[in-house]
């Protein structure tokens, strides 16, 4: 999706994707409702012990589908392009497992 609008299937299939380490879990910083944020994040190694995000996190993430080929995640991405205003857009990720040996 781009800004909450579904991209054409052909565009998705032509996209080379981004390789990183996927993590799904609670972010300790909560919301105004004093609840943790459940999020998916895609990371890359940065130096020897640090990591940096490759994509904006997906908040309130849900796993919609899990198959041997991958998993479909849906959540909300925060868009700060019009700072100080911000917007949330629906976003989906198709995550595909890779073999570390073939990725090297």
TrEMBL record:
Keywords, alphabetical: Plasmid
Protein name (record): Uncharacterized protein
UniProt source species: Thauera aminoaromatica
């Amino acid at each position: 999706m781009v800004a909450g609008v579904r991209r054409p299937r052909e565009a998705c299939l032509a996209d080379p994707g981004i390789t990183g380490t996927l993590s799904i879990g609670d972010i300790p910083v909560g919301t105004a409702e004093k609840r943790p944020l459940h999020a998916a994040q895609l990371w890359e190694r940065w130096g020897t012990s640090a990591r940096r995000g490759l994509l904006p996190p997906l908040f309130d993430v849900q796993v919609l589908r899990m198959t041997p080929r991958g998993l479909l995640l849906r959540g909300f991405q925060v868009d700060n392009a019009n700072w100080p205003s911000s917007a949330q857009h629906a976003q989906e990720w198709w995550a595909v497992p890779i073999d570390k040996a073939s990725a090297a």
